[in-house]
Write a sequence for this structure.
């Protein structure tokens, strides 16, 4: 080990507590980059694989009722690769041990297993059998919440009739990775589930023989990103059958929640770690500069004994690189465990068949490279000060900095009111501009992150309280398939336990303003 390397080791040991603070800042920045990028890759790859495996649809079209022969005409439209007509209805689940009404959505599946659009992945049990018609496959999260197992019977209210259904299995679907009921923000498997019936049985129960009320389909790659014109054409084609809704994949609720989460992770992983690494670089810059000033005599002696400027430059750069390397390696370890924990949290809300944390070498190497570059940049200014010193000049103590009045002293009434201690502090703050700027920047970034975190929590709490205590304060919402008169309202008011019942009329529509549009609904209320 060379003399300069032994000197480096001694200096790292003597300043270990100060260096530990800088290493911690770098570690946090690297950790945030590693865990956010890893979580981003975990979700992105899980979504991509699952969508390909389950053949996730590119569009959905809801109609009142249309013959299958007319629905298949959609496959002739240019840009449509494949379609699948199916039956979809909302239903009420009648479980004996449930204190509140349970809702669900019923979807039809082929009687025999085949590879279809929006396919399911069985978790427990099996597919439909030839033994009976009244068989059902239950969404796995709902089944786990209510301890429903294959081989049990459950009761659903389908088309205003109670139907006893035999559970043959539980499953998940790429269509409902993030399963939320209409109007909800978060999954609630305790009160909402998905139920898959045989297509032949669904036709019989819902009086849809030879017909369907929903079409899902796949699009050719050239129209997949901009399907609006094709969906408008499909709406005109199916207009005689009452098109209720149409939307592409990007507007599908489950896909939108998952894609927005992935997009948010990508954005945060780009700028959040940068804040910590910039702070670390600035602090390291101040540290190396002060270290060089303290070692002026040592630097002059080394130069006088024959050490070159390059050797001294590399010596102080190694100081910063050692700090960056330690912070990067610690960030690797903490980032991996953080990514593992975050991914396990995502498994609670997102139903993927395979969502696990993996090591992505590119992510880890990029994080280490960024930490080393920031440490190198932070050390560069101080190292350059060392090589600019001349031996004869450096071997003499640095002359004291010029004094003089600072600008604050010109404000006489204010300056005279300050104590001697405060005057010394303010002079040091104003004269050492770089250290002052670095401290203010670090403090402002830390305060900004804290404020953002607290504000996000307060905003979410306000949103939930405002939505469910002021806007939507009802205990139970009863949706009707068609418009009805005031007689239904009187019947609802007469039900046991009902204190107040209010009528609503909700009409779906599209709001357009120039080139912008958004789907929504117009809600009409009647007082009294």
């Amino acid at each position: 080990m060379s003399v300069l390397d032994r000197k480096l080791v001694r200096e790292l040991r003597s300043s270990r507590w100060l260096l530990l603070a800088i290493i911690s800042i770098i570690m946090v920045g690297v950790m945030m980059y590693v865990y956010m990028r890893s979580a981003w890759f975990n979700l992105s790859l899980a979504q991509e694989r699952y969508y390909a495996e389950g053949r996730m649809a590119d569009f959905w079209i809801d109609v009142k009722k249309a013959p299958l022969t007319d629905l298949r005409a959609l496959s002739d439209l240019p840009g449509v690769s494949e379609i699948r007509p199916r039956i979809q209805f909302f239903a009420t689940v009648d479980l004996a041990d449930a204190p509140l009404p349970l809702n669900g959505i019923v979807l039809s599946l082929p009687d025999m297993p085949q590879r279809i659009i929006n396919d399911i992945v069985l978790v427990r049990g099996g597919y439909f059998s030839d033994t009976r018609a009244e068989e059902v496959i239950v969404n796995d999260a709902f089944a786990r919440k209510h301890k429903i197992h294959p081989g049990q019977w459950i009761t659903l209210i389908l088309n205003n009739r109670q139907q006893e259904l035999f559970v043959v299995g539980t499953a998940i679907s790429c269509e409902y990775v993030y399963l939320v009921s209409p109007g909800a923000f978060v999954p609630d498997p305790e009160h909402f589930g998905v139920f898959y019936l045989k297509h032949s049985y669904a036709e019989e129960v819902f009086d849809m023989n030879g017909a369907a009320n929903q079409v899902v389909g796949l699009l050719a790659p050239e129209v997949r990103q901009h399907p609006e014109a094709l969906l408008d054409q499909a709406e005109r084609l199916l207009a005689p059958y009452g098109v209720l809704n149409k939307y592409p994949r990007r507007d599908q609720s489950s896909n939108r929640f998952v894609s927005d989460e992935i997009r948010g992770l990508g954005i945060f992983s780009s700028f959040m770690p940068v804040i910590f690494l910039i702070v670390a670089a600035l602090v390291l810059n101040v540290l190396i500069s002060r270290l060089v000033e303290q070692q002026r005599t040592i630097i002059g002696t080394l130069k006088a004994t024959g050490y070159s400027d390059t050797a001294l430059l590399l010596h102080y750069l190694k100081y910063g690189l050692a700090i960056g390397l330690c912070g990067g390696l610690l960030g690797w370890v903490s980032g991996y465990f953080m990514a593992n924990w975050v991914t396990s949290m995502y498994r609670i809300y997102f139903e993927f068949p395979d969502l696990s944390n993996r090591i992505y070498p590119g992510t880890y190497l990029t994080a280490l490279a960024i930490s080393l570059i920031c440490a190198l940049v932070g050390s560069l200014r101080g190292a350059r000060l060392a090589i600019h010193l001349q031996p004869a000049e450096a071997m003499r103590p640095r002359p004291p900095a010029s004094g003089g009045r600072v600008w604050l002293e010109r404000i006489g009434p204010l300056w005279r009111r300050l104590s001697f201690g405060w005057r010394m502090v303010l002079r040091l703050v104003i004269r050492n501009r770089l250290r002052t700027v670095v401290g203010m920047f670090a403090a402002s970034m830390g305060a900004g992150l804290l404020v953002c975190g607290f504000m996000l929590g307060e905003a979410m709490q306000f949103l939930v309280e405002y939505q469910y205590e002021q806007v939507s304060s009802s205990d139970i919402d009863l949706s009707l398939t068609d418009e009805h008169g005031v007689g239904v309202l009187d019947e609802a008011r007469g039900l046991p336990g009902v204190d107040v019942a209010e009528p609503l009329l909700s009409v779906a529509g599209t709001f357009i303003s120039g080139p912008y549009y958004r789907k929504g609904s117009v809600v009409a209320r009647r007082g009294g």
